[in-house]
Amino acid sequence: MKYIDEYRDKDLVQKLVAQIKKKSKKPISLMEVCGGHTMSIQKFGIPYLLPDTVKLISGPGCPVCVSSNSFIDRAIAYSRLDDVIITTYGDLIRVPGSTSSLDKEKAKGADIRIVYSILDALTIAKSNRGKRVVFLGIGFETTAPGSAAGILKAQMAGLKNFFVFSSHKIMPPAMEALIDEGVKIDGYIAPGHVTTITGTSIYKDIPEKFGLGCVVSGFEPVDLLTAILMLVVQIENNDPKVEIAYKRVVKPEGNVKAQEILYEVFELRDDWWRGLGILPKSGLKIREKYQMHDAEVMVPVEVEPVKEWKGCICGEVLKGLKNPKECKLFGKVCTPANPVGACMVSNEGSCHAYYRYNK
Amino acid sequence: MDKNILLGHGSGGVMTHDLISDLFVKYFHNELLETQTDSAVLQIASNIISFTTDSFVVDPIFFPGGNIGKLAIAGTVNDLAVSGAKPKYLSCGFIIEEGFSIGELEKIVKTMAEEAKKAGVKIVTGDTKVVNRGKCDKVYINTTGVGELSENRKDIGTGVNIEAGDKIIINGSIADHGMSIMASREGLNFSAEIESDCACLNHMIQKALDVSDKIKFMRDATRGGLATVLCELATDRNYGIEINEEDIVVKENVRGICELLGFDPLYVANEGKVVIVVASEDAEEVLEAIRSDEYGKDAAIIGEVTDIHHGRAWLNTGIGGRRIIDMLAGEQLPRIC
After folding, report:
1. CATH code (residue B11)
2. What count of CB pairs under 8 Å joins A to B?
3. A143 in B contact zone (CB under 8 Å)
4. Shared-domain flag, residues A303 and A324
5. What is the pLDDT of residues B167-221, one digit of tens each?
6. Which of B46, B45, B71 is nearest to B57 (CA)?
7. pLDDT tens digit string along A168-187?
8. What is the mean pLDDT of chain A?
9. Which secondary-structure segment (H or E) carries B119?
10. Residue A153, C-beta contacts closer than 8 angstroms, at least 6 positions apart
11. Which residues in chain A have their CB less than 8 angstroms from residue B322's CB?
């Protein structure tokens, strides 16, 4: 397949691996921030190719995993309202809330529909004027502009029955918080899709303030290995900086139009992250100007008290402080078929990926 | 005949009789069905039979490469054939939603008759129920099948005789059916249409059995895909399995949609693919026999049974990496970013 096979070329991969082996001297840990990276790394069996000196750890970049139970609980409460249709990306369907999950509510009769894009949710709202359609807005700078565009479209079309429940977050505060908390990493494999939108300026503090390298990577093996090689070279030369190993997609300035739409509709707020707690200015709230499409404002609902699971170490796993295997629940009580922690739910979650590919 | 199914068509009265004779008997006709007795009386050459049942509830009921009727025949014929049996007789039960188009039902029944004829099986008994509108989705079909099995092939279904060194063969590209359904359900046919691989494999399997008596295991890689069959085999028999991604065929358009939605083709359903484990010395001959059949042109040896990492299936990835293949927890769901 064009534009994919080139980046899965075995010879090229082997050359990159040879280079990494040659250049890498001291043992290092690199964190892939993005859940999509975690998936690719496991799917292609990349850890098997790397020398013992290079260890990869998974970061907080799986949006489903870092969302709070209270987000899911509120989504569930919405789904129990008779006149509400929930529209959501597939991954949220199985995420456990305090006492239920969306798929359990669906089985009980709630109208919950999986969509591929917010545009599908708009179509549903158009053809169900008598219902309130709530779109669960989840994800980082990658999916947030889509939600923003959806809200703008709804505004233009006068779709009064369309609401977004935003759990959108932005990436840099979490990357900085991890370093602040003392997570032992030597460099970041920075998220490709997020950076496509934001550009690279969001990472400038990471080498400047924290002395860590930051290489933006794509999702194919050649992309990832190139990023790893660039980080190895940076670390060996003690020359931390922000670089792009995904130039066919990522521009230093990012997608300016998407950034404009994003901040036209959303403003920053303090937000809660699983494992990291409340991070200042890390979440995206719908601006007052667009509050007629903000589910939190327009769709009041009573939500059950939040219960977090005991014994679950998703927080530490997300911070890269612990390996999923160190969790007492991992693989026994908590499995992909019966997830306890959010990291086991999404394909991108570190526990899920670890369970599937390394168990 | 009315254009739509009415509750009366399931009443057991005249309308039911008319539906049976004008539709089911008309297309499925054979001497056993035509007696229209309460049960079919069958003669079987062997004293071991293979016996299986499956229900079909696919949505949409018509898809590129087939329809629910074709699936209902192929699914059961294949379940018999992969057990090493010669499929002989099928039963066929319909649960139909009130209001369903008789024209569409006729298309389905006609396809079933054609498939059964191709596979050389007879539909000898059946049942029709009509349920209120909204109580089922258009039409559900159950087929049950009986096949003749010989003593020397009765362990093919379980694979108890597999050994380290045995080769693993699959008869062509994977994930066609699942992605065809997905694409038609979601309106995702942006490139060349993906056709389901739905087909009766019994003749192809017979060709393989004709050239080797060392076929030790067969299973059709339906729901859960190729990965699930390999995991089941590794766990059940406590051998290691090793397969090579490079040797597994995935069609370009299928790969495209899988990439787009974040699906792993190894876990996507097939309806015309069988995984065969055969003794190494017979592998080439079996491969050739399969390739000589229209449903096995792209057959390949994709891996082997090993004596290491017992109970686990491993994939050597296309780039030279390695990873474990595990069973899927639930449905594959599209990823968000």
Report:
1. 3.30.1330.10
2. 99
3. yes
4. no
5. 999 999 999 999 999 888 877 766 568 999 999 999 999 999 999 999 999 999 9
6. B71
7. 999 999 999 888 888 888 99
8. 92
9. helix B102-119
10. A119, A122, A159
11. 45, 48
